[in-house]
Amino acid sequence: ADLACITETWLGQEGSVSLSEMCPDGFQIMHQPRFQGRGGGVAVIVRESLKPRRIPAPEVVGCESLLLRLDSRVQLGLLLTYLPPSCMATALPVLLEAVAGLAMEFPRLM
Q1: Separation CA 92–CA 1 (nearest Å)
Q2: Helix, strand, coil percent content, the chain, rounded in steps of 5
Q3: Which of 23, 33, 84, 89 is the most exposed place for a label (fewest CB within 10 A)?
Q4: Is residue 21 a part of any domain in this protein?
């Protein structure tokens, strides 16, 4: 596999160190922790040959999101979002609007 998406990392900012320790050779990890409360957090482990580049993710209150640009033979956008059940009703419409905007920038969006 070329990438793995992880939700509910339960790691704060210092947790990026422990994530990088489990990253295989030839891969790198991108992590977006939850800054308040416990739980949450998202991470992507991605093959370096895909040339991952982190770009600013849409701000959706109550969610953690990670947006990557991947360049191989084709350019891809990868949006990984953790949407907690407690904010589903309010955040989902905002998230869907953000995805629609990203689809204009990335014709190939995952």
Answers
A1: 29
A2: 30, 35, 40
A3: 89
A4: yes
Amino acid symbol at 82: Y
Q: Record the pTM.
A: 0.85
Instruction: In whole angstroms, give the CA distance from residue 76 to residue 94.
Output: 22
Interval 76-100: pLDDT, tens: 999 999 888 877 778 888 889 999 9
* 110 assigned to some structural domain: no
Residue with tokens 């350019």: 75
pLDDT, tens digit (0-9, with 9 covering 90-100), for 19-75:
778 889 999 999 988 777 777 789 999 999 999 999 998 888 888 899 999 998 889
Residue 37, domain extent: 3-105
